[in-house]
Structure formats: C-alpha cells, structure tokens
Design a protein that fits this description.
The complex is a heterodimer.
Chain A lengths: L1 H24 L3 E5 L6 H17 L2 E5 L7 H13 L4 E4 L8 H9 L3 E5 L10 E4 L2 H16 L3 E7 L5 H17 L3 E8 L4 H14 L5 E4 L2 H14 L5 E5 L3 H9 L4 E5 L1 H16 L7 E3 L2 E4 L7 H4 L5
Parallel strand pairs in A: 1-2, 1-3, 3-4, 4-5, 5-11, 6-7, 6-8, 8-9, 9-10
Antiparallel strand pairs in A: 10-12
Helix pairs in contact in A: 2-10, 5-6, 7-8
Chain B lengths: L6 H4 L13 H22 L6 H26 L7 H18 L4 H25 L4 H20 L4 E2 L14 H5 L7 H19 L1 H18 L4 H27 L1 E2 L7 H11 L11 H20 L4 H26 L1
Antiparallel strand pairs in B: 1-2
Helix pairs in contact in B: 2-12, 3-8, 3-9, 3-10, 3-11, 3-12, 4-5, 4-6, 4-10, 5-6, 5-10, 8-9, 9-10, 11-12, 11-13, 12-13
The chains are: A alpha/beta, B mainly alpha.
Chain lengths: 314, 339
C-alpha cells in the first residue's frame, strides 16, 4: 500500500520538479492553447511565443492536444488554463464553436482571449493572429500557372476539408486557377489528413490515374512531403510540385529541385504576435480584428535569403 | 456498491486468513486513497486547483472517458478487450447528428438513436467474437476502423452541429443540480456518468447477466460444459457495452454541441487505462465498475492538476504513463500476497 502511494507521489514530484520550475519563475504567465503540440509547425509557433515572452518579460505556457481531431481534449486544456485566471490566453480553436461557452466564462472573468492560427465564431477574441490562407494559396496558384506555362492539368493533395485552413487553402488555390488561368484544369482534389504516409499513397494513386499530370499542390507540411515521397517512389519527372509550410524534408526537396517551391507562413510570427497582442489587450490598447502575420513564396533561389530563413523552421 | 461475492472469487478454496490489504475492497480503497492524495497534493501546490469551476471541469473531463471505461470494463471482465469504443462513440454521435440535424427529428429520438446504434455495433462485435470465433483484439480492431470510416462517410468528413436542436447541449453541459443548488452546478453529464455506474454495478452484481460476465472471464469452458449458451450471453454483454458507448457518444456530442467525425482514435486506450488503474484484470474474471470510475477520475485529476500547475506537457505525458505502471504494479504486489 505504501509502495503504491509513494510511487505515485514520487512520479508526481518528479514531473513537477522538472517541469514546473521555469514557468513559475515569472509573475505573469500567458497560456497558449494550441491545435497541436509535437508537430514542427506548432513548435515553431511556440518558439515565437517564447521569444516574445523573453522579450516582454512574461512566462509562456504552451499546450495542445496530440492531434487535430481531439476537440474535447483541447477544451479540457482550456478549462485548466482558465482555472489559473491568467490575464490573457492565446487560443487556436480546433472547432469554431465548441469552445464558446468557455470563452464566455473567460470573458466573465475578465480574461482577454487572443485567437491565433484560426478564428472562432464569436466576437469574444480581441483579435486573431493568422495567415491569410486564401491569398497565400492564390499565390501558390499563380506560381503553378507560371511554371506550367499557363496550361496543363494539376491535382491537389489537401490536409482536410473541415478546418478553416484546409478549406481556405484548397479554395484559394482552385478559385484563382479557375478565375485567371482557364487552360489549367484541376483534375482531382484528395484529402490525406496531413499524414505523410496517407498523402504518399494518395499521390501514387493520382499519378497512376493521370499519366499526363502537370503539377501537384500539397496544402500543408505533411501533405507536401507525402507528394514528394509519392513522386519520388513513382519515379516521375518533370512534375511541378508546390508545397506549403516548411520543415526539413520540404526544404531538402526544394534544394534538390524535386519541389519547385512552397508557400511559407510565419509560424514564429504567429506565436510572437499572439503574445504581443495579449499584452496589448492587457494594457487596454485597441487591436485590429485580424493581425495578418504574413506569408512568403520560397524556392531554390531565395531559400537562403535572410528574410526567408527567419520564417522557415526545421 | 459492489461488495457482493462473485463467481471469480468464490470458486477456489479461500485462504485461512486473508490480510485486509490483500482483499478486493482494499484495492479499491487504495485507488480511492490515491485519488484523494492527488487531490490534496494538487490543492496544496496550487490555490487555483480547488475551485468549484475547476472541480466541475475535472468531472466533465472524466465523464466521457468514465462511461467508455465502464463499457470496456464489462468486456474486459469476460476476458476480452474492446478497441472500438472510441470510434464507436463517434459513430453514435454522428448518427445522432444525422437524426437530429439532417432529418430534423425531436431530441428524444436522437437519444434513442445513439443508444440503439451503439447496441447494434456492440451486437456486431459480439457476433464476431462469440459466434465467428474471431479473437476480440482483432474483431474490435476491425470494428474500430469500420466505424471510423463510416463516421467519415456519413458526414462527408465535416462536423454536424446541433444548432437546430435547442436543449441538446444541456444533456451534458446543463445542470439540473445547479437549478436546485446554484452554488454546486454539477453538469448533467456527470450525473449521467454516475447513473450509468450505478446501473451497470447493479447488473454486474445482482443479475444473471452479471454473474455470467464474471463466469465467462474465469472459466468459459466450464460454463459451456454446464449447458450455458455462452455465445448468446457473450453477445448480450457486447451489446450492453455498445449501448453504454452510445451514451458516451451522446455525452461528447452534447458537450461539443457537434458530432466530430474524425475524433475517437486513442480514446479506447485511455478508457482501458482507467480500467486497469481501477484494478480490473486484463486476464478477465475480475473487476468492478467502481474501480474503473475511480480510474477515470484519477486520469482526469492528474491531467487537470498538472496543467493547472503549469507542468510542461512533455512531462504530463510521462507522469500519466508512470501512474498506469505504478497502479498495475501495486495490483500485482497485492495479488502475489493473496497467493
């Protein structure tokens, strides 16, 4: 009996001793409840937030569910963050509606909510720090058209058809092609959940079905890497592959010339701007409805530019 | 709640004197004591832990996993395992969404639809296991994928919202208790968890179905040789477990005010973790609903407490794994003493 209790107690003590120290050192801690945790993109957001925390002298606590389907887990995390009654919370909603009761609770407690990455169906957040995904995907479409010489067939390997980012990137890309490049046909749009392996299989199937395909657009890091893997496995050459976000594998593919280029958001900037906006809200400053954190096109020519290197993550 | 004699524990010759610490009651007291110790430790370490709103958040976090754990407890006592409860829960939520939002039917039909869908899915699992002799691990692994796929197909991979069914979110989020005692707004979802726990405890301890559940896990062959239709009873238990999963589906749909078709993978493992922390043996024949309930509460308290203490998330995961191993090890020690 004692053994069991002391085991539990010691594992608790261990976890606390190793984890709690730094976060408690600062007087003000701003929790960021993210959509994910172990994914490179979210770790880059975290790095940006911590950078802002160090610069402005506040603590940052970054949490997020294991994958982007766990809406209820994210809500549990938000509840725990609310219990500490911090002055502000950063929140990247997995579902645009599910967290609204908690956001109301936050409002009642006087906690400022700063949305980041995607917004919620509510006017409670003081602002939303995010990429204009429609415009970013439209830029990908422009580059695709340019590289194909204005005509040909393309496929889209998207990460999902539910979230705002998935929908915006797909539509931003497809609509721009339809409006401005009538000779380019989108032959198929398939969804790989952002999973590398699933996206690889999808890509191989698309290549088999469309022997004359001119280009493929992968709408996030996992999708884009899947496209690269699929094309590499199939041994197809001459395809125009355009990706989204960065990560080591995608950057390698661009350097090798397998991938024509990619859109990068500014995840570090998203994290940084979220914290900055939270502090501004705490000081009673007015904030715009949307803080556009920006996006860039990068390819083998400019990948080593300082401006691009600053927003890429590995 | 569950202190009656069970076939699994009454068959062998009873030891002359069993030390108190080696009894099943003690195991549950230990789990309960661990829960209390955790609550005290967290309360001391953080003044924000012991607030009504946070305690309610913990109970709410435990409600879905608790109901799933109760369903899995039934299956595990029979000596089986159920990997499909997470995606089955999602599928039940999706069917409710179709009935209420897409077909515009009244609220009560959605409740029936969820429970009935779960029962049908459980009946299918039970048939695979008991009649087609597919090992439970494989049968429910298959069901896990089938149900996940069906959820995505049914919804076109988009969530279904319940905005047109006023009152649906009250199933989990509302508080009947709060209307009587405004200072303790215990959400209905938590009441449903306790109601399910009491009902299933009653079934396990006071009914033939319950006795056969333990008997299937302790000695299925003996049961079959004595003329019991084991396949029929086993199917019935899987069906009952499925219906309980349907209730979990209602709870999560109501809590999120939407049916999220991609959700559910991984939830079966957390339910199994709650069951083993609660002292139920994975080899079957032994286990209680109360134990699983406490297991689910331990997981919820630990997750919430570490978050309130701002423990880094990486360490939260480590702590959770350590607790599972510690709990099962304590159970092993106790059983070695029993002989």
């Amino acid at each position: 009996m004692l053994k069991r209790r002391s085991l539990i107690a010691s594992s608790l003590a261990l976890a606390m001793a190793m984890g709690a120290g730094p976060a408690m050192a600062d007087d003000v801690t701003i929790p960021l409840v993210s959509k994910g945790f172990q994914h490179e993109f979210w770790q880059a957001v975290r790095a940006g937030a911590e950078q802002a925390g160090a610069e402005f002298g506040v603590g940052i606590e970054f949490v997020g569910p294991d994958d982007e389907s766990q809406v209820d887990r994210q809500i549990d995390m938000l509840s725990a963050a609310l219990a500490n009654e911090p002055p502000a919370i950063g929140f990247a909603a997995l579902d645009t509606q599910a967290a609204i009761p908690l956001l109301r609770e936050a409002q009642d407690k006087g906690i400022h909510i700063v949305a980041f990455d995607s917004g919620v169906d509510s006017d409670i957040p003081v602002t939303t720090a995010t990429t204009d995904n429609v415009a970013a995907a439209a830029l990908a479409a422009d580059r695709m058209a340019e590289l194909l010489g204005g005509s040909g067939t393309v496929a889209v390997v998207a990460h999902d058809q539910v979230s705002a980012t998935g929908v915006d990137r797909r539509d931003g890309f497809v609509n721009r092609l339809a409006e401005q490049y009538p000779d380019i046909e989108v032959v198929t749009i398939q969804y790989g959940g952002g999973d590398h392996l699933t996206s690889t299989e999808i890509t191989r199937a698309i290549l088999t079905a469309n022997p004359d395909l001119g280009g493929i657009f992968g709408t996030n890091e996992g999708s884009a890497i899947g496209v690269v893997n699929g094309v590499r496995e199939a041994g197809r050459e001459g395809l125009v592959i355009i990706g989204y976000d960065s990560g080591a594998a995608q950057q390698d593919a661009i350097r090798e010339g397998l991938m024509a280029g990619a859109i990068t958001q500014n995840p570090v900037g998203i994290g940084f701007e979220t914290v900055r906006a939270a502090l501004a809200a705490m000081n009673g400053e007015d904030l715009p409805e949307i803080i556009d954190t920006g996006f860039f096109w990068y390819d083998a020519d400019n990948i080593d530019d300082e401006e691009i290197q600053a927003v890429l993550y590995n | 709640m569950t202190d009656t004699l069970r076939p699994g524990t009454t068959t062998g010759p009873a030891p002359e004197r069993v030390s108190f610490f080696a009894t099943a009651t003690a195991q549950r007291l230990l789990a309960f004591a661990s829960l209390i110790v955790m609550v005290i430790v967290f309360s001391v370490l953080s003044p924000n832990f012991m607030q009504t709103s946070n305690i309610i958040a913990i109970l709410q976090a435990a409600s879905v996993n608790g109901v799933l754990a109760i369903a899995v407890t039934l299956i595990i006592i029979t000596g089986g395992i159920d990997l499909s409860v997470g995606t089955m829960m999602t599928f039940c939520a999706v069917v409710t969404g179709v009935v209420l939002t897409n077909m515009g039917m009244p609220l009560w039909t959605g409740v029936i639809a969820a429970i009935l869908t779960g029962a049908c899915a459980g009946f299918a699992s039970g048939t695979f296991v008991a009649r087609m002799m597919i090992p439970p691990f494989i049968a429910t692994l298959g069901m896990m994928m089938i149900l996940r796929g069906l959820s995505l197909i049914t919804t076109g991979a988009r969530p279904i919202y319940f905005n047109n069914t006023p009152g649906f979110d009250q199933i989990s989020r509302g508080s009947l208790v709060g209307q009587v005692f405004p200072s303790v707004p215990v959400p209905n979802g938590v009441l449903i968890l306790f109601a399910v726990a009491i009902a299933v405890s009653f079934i396990l301890n006071r009914t033939v179905l319950g006795r056969y559940t333990y008997a299937l896990g302790s000695n299925e062959e003996a049961m079959r040789l004595s003329g019991v239709n084991t396949a029929a009873w086993k199917t019935a238990i899987y069906t009952l477990a499925g219906a309980i999963v349907g209730i979990a589906g209602l709870l999560i749909a109501s809590r999120l005010n939407s049916a999220q078709p991609a959700l559910g993978m991984g939830y079966e493992l957390e339910a199994i973790a709650a069951v083993v922390i609660g002292g139920t043996s994975l080899s079957g024949g032994r286990g209680t609903v109360l134990g699983s309930l406490i297991g689910a509460l331990i997981i919820a308290v630990l997750a919430n407490g570490l978050r309130v203490l701002s423990v880094a998330q990486e360490w939260q995961i480590v702590a959770m794994g350590a607790i599972i191993i510690a709990a099962v090890y304590a159970d092993q020690l106790r059983r070695q003493k029993t002989g």
